[in-house]
Amino acid sequence: MTAPPTTTPALAPFATLADTPDVAEVRARVRRVLAEHVTPERLAEHDENETYDLELYNELAAAGLIRLETEIDGRKAAHQSQVTVLEELGAGATSVGVSIVVQYMGVELLHSFGNSAQRQEFLAPLLAGDARMSFALSEPDGGTDVARAMKTRATRRADGSYVLNGRKKWIGGASTANFLLVLARTTEIERSSIDGITMFILPRSTPGITTTPIDTMGIRALEQADIVFEDVVIPAEFVLGEVDRGFRQVLATLNGERLNGAAVALGIGRGALEHAVAYAKDREAFGRPVGAFQALQHELVDAAVKIESARLLLHNAARTSDEAEGGANETLSAMAKLAASEAGTTASDIGMRVMGGWGFLRQLPMQRYFRDARLYTFAPLTDEMIRNYIGEKHLGLPRSY
């Protein structure tokens, strides 16, 4: 053929590791939902129009893929289940996958630190898919070092309630979420400390909250927003966990967030590679498929090796985190996130170059993979900070920051 179709046909996914029966069942469930509800045209439409696919989210929730194994007052979802869901979504419905990373984080925080009343009011509908949350941490002056740069303040009043003022930036889904988890400084402590910050549950309908969409390059089907809080009153019962210990509570969830971000990045890489290989088999130049040229073959192979290596690291890290009695192997999770980030950016970059001008076509998904993969070079932590962490914790090198 002389050109790829305007819509890319569904491709058989690359072989995965031998899943356990439980993981295989989760993977099959995700794929059934995606096969029934997702088309290339639908993905392109939401990306182009910058609209969130709420219908797909609802279908995933109805299939139990937000709840997974979580019980309100019992066990948590397995990391292996979460990363399986997110890899499958990353390979196609990437923006929905990114939003579910946030939902899983909210589930973790409410399950770990919420009291019984908070779990019933906020966690139960979140697990059922009847509510969505947004996590408000980053600020205009602070991303990686947000605790020390935090300017958002919550002042306690005589009746025990708080008044919240400040700004947050890059907050996914903030305009349409049912509630926010907001971090704000409640006690002035020396700059070097991460204490003095409290986490609040804040219904989105609370007066004094203004959100403004941000026009972003990637993950366009999930709104990113600026938030302004002006004299927002928060009842005392909406403090989540311990006063002044909120940032430490966030740190306790970072292992899972790294794993889940890695899973989406891995899925992006897998999706990009699948489309690039399909194109290389079908596109002809000089009388043969371009995939027959050694230079292109080698680059596609390099991408495949990065993807399979990242998958091995990811599932090993998820498994050991599920099995760990004394805590998760956070260094292994950091390695998985770094490997998956590089796999996603490498595969999407190679895919763009394999497809040439066709990679630029907005109707085809390669340019979307290329844009979306860049998110996980800096989220939830920058790759540079991940390297710093691994250098210190795994190699025993002096702290570099």
Structure description:
By secondary structure, the chain is of the alpha+beta class. It has 3 domains: 112 residues, Acyl-CoA dehydrogenase/oxidase, N-terminal domain (Butyryl-Coa Dehydrogenase, subunit A, domain 1, Orthogonal Bundle), CATH 1.10.540.10; 114 residues, Butyryl-CoA Dehydrogenase, subunit A, domain 2 (Beta Barrel), CATH 2.40.110.10; 144 residues, Butyryl-CoA Dehydrogenase, subunit A, domain 3 (Up-down Bundle). Helix content is 49%, strand content 14%. It has 13 helices and 10 strands. A 4-stranded mixed beta sheet has the order 1-4-5-8. The protein has a 4-stranded antiparallel beta sheet with strand order 2-3-7-6, with no helix packed on it. The protein has a two-stranded antiparallel sheet with strand order 9-10. A hairpin with a 2-residue loop joins strand 9 and strand 10. The chain is globular. Keywords: FAD, Flavoprotein, Oxidoreductase. Belongs to the acyl-CoA dehydrogenase family. It comes from Corynebacterium hylobatis. Its cofactor is FAD.
